Sequence to fold (300 residues):
Amino acid sequence: MDLSAFAHLWILFSLASAFFHASRLAVTKHLGLSFSAEVLTFYVNLISLAITLPLIVWNHQFPFHEPRYLLAVLCGGVLSALGGWALNAAIHKSEVSLVGPMITFTPGFVILIEWVLTGVLPGAVGVLGIAFLVAGSYILSLSDRRVGWSLPFKRLVTDPGSRLAVCAAACFAAASVFGRIGIQLSDPLSFAVVVAIVNPLVLFVLFTLHDRGFYARIFTDQTRHQARPLLVLGGLFALMRIADQIALSLTLASYAMAVKRTAGVFSVLLGRRFFRETHPIAKLIGSAVMLLGVLALTQG
Fold:
C-alpha cells in the first residue's frame, strides 16, 4: 500500500494518533479502579490484535526473508512491550506527576536513535518544532503544583520510578524508529498487524515471569462485567496504532512522535469535558507552546 501521494498529510495522522491516545487514557482512567495495570495492558493489546488482524486480508506484505524486516518486527514488538511494562512499573513505584515529565522526552531519544540507525536528522526548523512540542508537553505534565520544574530531574538519582520512566521513553523511541524501518520494507497496515501479534505474546511472557499467578487474573467475573469499556479501550488503542504506522510511513519518526505529544492538549480538553477538570495557567501555556511546535513542523 503506497501512501507517498499523501505525504503532506502526515501531521493529520499524527494528530489523530494523539487524539486516540488521549481518549484511551481517559477510558483507562475509568477502568483503572477495576483492573491491575498488567491485566489492563494485556487486554488492551489482545483486543487491539483482534481488531487489526483482519487488515491482513487487504494488506499482507510480510517479507520475513529480509533480515532487516525481521529485525524491525522483533525489536519493534519487544521494545514497545518492554516500554509499556516499564511505564506500568514506573507508575506503581512513583507518583504519576514525576513519571509523566520523563515520558515527554521520547522525541529527543527518537532523534538520537533515528540518526544512529538510519543516519537521518531533522532540519533546523524541524528541531525547533520538536523542541517546542517537548517543552509544551513537559509544562503540561507539571500540572501538579507540588512538583517544581526541576524536581523530576532531581528524582532521577533517588526515585526508581523516574528511572523506569526514562527507560520506557527510550523503548518507545526505539520502537518507533524500528517501526519506520519495517514499514519502509512492507506497508503501515501490514506492519501494524505484525506488531499487534508480537506485543501480547511478549507481555504475557513478561507478566507471567513476573507473577506466576498472572494468567489466573485474566479471566474473572469483572472482565465480563467490563467487556464493553474494554472493547472501547482496545479499539482506541488499535486506531492509535494504525494512525501511528501511517504517520511513520510518511515522515521521520522524530516528527511523528513529537506531534503525538499533543495528546496532552487533547487530554486537557477531554478532562474538561468528561471529568470537569480545571485549566490552570500552566496547562494553557503548555498547550500554546505545543501549538507553536506543530506550526513550526508544518513549515519545515
Summary: The chain has a mean pLDDT of 80. The first helix runs from residue 10 to 31. The two ends are 26 Å apart (CA to CA).
